[in-house]
Amino acid sequence: MNPAAWAVLLTVLVAGWVLLDGAVQGAGATLLQERNHDGSDRRRAPAERRVVLGAVAPMLVPGEVWLVAALAVLVGVFPYAGADLVDAASPVAVALIVSWVLRDAAIWLRSRRLKRVWRDAWDILLVVASIVLAGSWGALLGAAWGSGLAALVLGIVAVVVTRLHAAAVVAWRRRRTGPLPVIVTSVMIVAPVVGTAVVAWPRLVEGGISPETMGAYGIGAAVVVPLALALQVCAWRLVSRPLSRRDTSFF
């Protein structure tokens, strides 16, 4: 595999992660409140929170497989470009990692006890961590543009679009809408990744390892990529079916 092929693979892996995990981020960010038809906000009941989390739950683990694979490609194949990105936005990268860990902890631990105080505390943490995760991810994309303004704009865009994407996925799984809104928000959430890849392409390709080592790593990619694609297919098959009570029982 040459540098261009690896750069395309990295873009696909990152796009796969934001497509799946973006719905989880948006669901977490809006877990406590939802928008009424008249435009006002209302607090979600505990049962409604379980429905929202159950709707996006099939996208969590497969999405993180894409993220781990993308990090492996960035660190293993484009270490210099990755180091430049971290140096330029190290606080943002730290915020992304910390919020990612806290978000996952809140999802898995919120239902481990029945006390309402316990769940409410984890739900508040889940909301905050989800917003920070989406915002820091968008800001990291902006840092790849080499612009503080781009980091600010893309951070805000990421927070907004993940909410729209989550709302579309949840509504689709509850069969309140068709798949078209999900398709639209999927394009919206992937577009910044593709745009950033185009802007950062020269620096990314130049910041790679030797062609010989890339070729050796290609053998591993031939094993990992089909697995990631299989998980993607499984995730979308689960999401495409109507939401059932069994889907919400864990949360």
From TrEMBL:
It comes from the Bacteria. The lineage of its organism: Bacteria, Bacillati, Actinomycetota, Actinomycetes, Micrococcales. Its EC number is 1.10.3.-. It is a multi-pass membrane protein. The keyword Aminoacyl-tRNA synthetase does not apply. The keyword Cell membrane applies. Keywords: Cell membrane, Membrane, Oxidoreductase, Transmembrane, Transmembrane helix. This is Cytochrome d ubiquinol oxidase subunit II. InterPro entries: Cyt-d_oxidase_su2. GO terms for molecular function: oxidoreductase activity. Belongs to the cytochrome ubiquinol oxidase subunit 2 family. It is found in: Cell membrane. The chain crosses the membrane at residues 6-32, 52-82, 88-109, 121-143, 149-170, 182-202, 214-239.
